[in-house]
Amino acid sequence: MQHATQFYIDGKWIDPIEPKTLDVIDPSTAKPFATISLGSAGDVDRAVAAAKTAFASYSETTVQQRIDLLQAILEVYRKRYDDMVDAISHEMGAPKQFAHDAQAWTGTAHLETMIRTLQHFDFEQLKGSMLIRKEPVGVCGLITPWNWPALQITTKVAPALAAGCTMVLKPSELAPMSAMLYAEILHEAGVPAGVFNLVNGEGQVVGDAMSRHKDIDMMSFTGSTRAGVQVAKAAADTVKRVHQELGGKSANLILEDADLRDAVTRGARACFDNSGQSCDAPTRMFVPRARMDEALSYAKEVADALVVGPADAPSSDMGPVISQLQFDKIQSMIDAGVREGAVLAAGGPGRPEGLGEGYYVRPTVFGHVTHDMTIAREEIFGPVLSILGYDTEDEAVAMANDSIYGLAGYIQSASLERARTVAKRLRTGTIYLNYAEYSPEAPFGGYRQSGNGREYGEFGLEDFLEIKGVVGYGK
Q1: Active site residue 140
Q2: Whole-angstrom Cα distance, residue 240 to residue 212?
Q3: Which regions form coiled coils (predicted)?
Q4: Which of 127, 150, 151, 229 maximizes the CB count within 10 A of its CB?
């Protein structure tokens, strides 16, 4: 990528004000494969100024013009699909097949969903003599994480464009190449100059400057709860809107009437997907206490069968985690599980055999986990499954809800009616019954310290809109 050390501002690739570079590490090898520039507050000022200027005209575009623009973006995205697969696989270590079928696919799915949403969305409603009008919120600051780059960028950029907003994107500096490719896609699709801008950099510099900026009207942040708190505090002085999708410790309730082998097997696989690096991963599995050992045996089968290896190896089921920092954190959490008395059924500390370089973690299963253990309470963000036992359904629900997080939940039961009843009792933003298929239209977001606001489809579009009441509009 020729402009890897530049930023995309006002429709052009330009050099940073102050030269400062960072190597991008391939997690499969733990070696650099690209170099980017890290931006400053001055670079943010330039990007925001471009977005503010562009807002005057872009906010007045028609719905059909914005539909046409999103369709053009989708067309170019499909043309560059393999490039997106390669970028994601390289920068975050996702196995090629997973990067193709899941990671890059989410970008397509959410563009398609936003086009359908925009085709039917009602921006104006007349209620008696009052007009309710939904208008773009303004200039938006977007901060995205490294774990699902195409997904997270699309679920912010697409609704912002659909709403008529302009924006500045700061992707994760750990996985920036897919974001720079995204900028190329938007440029080729004809997004007007200044509508979309990209500045790479560190959260405490670029992210902080965006959050504090007086000309940014909204911050949309996805990442850790700790960083989300920092964004909200920095944004408070300018009273801008802050939308946050933060951490999770999602519960998977396997009810007593469920097919235990099937439920545990599918739940373990879902936990280990993306090397466990998904905020909504079902990392807390609740099973009837009397069947704990049986459940452990099924989860162990899944963990032992996974082939861990480099992203470009065709045999790899699971790649590395993103960084040395993440690897070290996961190892400390595994050590805590052993130290606090959980039963280690599969995996454990250290790298898988034969993998001396790269940030590889052994798929790990703990059983007989108690509700007060560290691995049952804290987000690990790695391939570590904690299995907890329960005696009654009420106990399982109470433990599932007793968390600072509330992002996602999973319920398995032979009775859909029973699963629906339990779903009403879980305090989480999204619930999947019997491993229902992923939906790009389902509202995504959380309760408590998992954030506020919702993404995906019409719910994501609503978050980029202001509501105006025009009284006396009708007769």
Answers
A1: no
A2: 9
A3: none
A4: 150
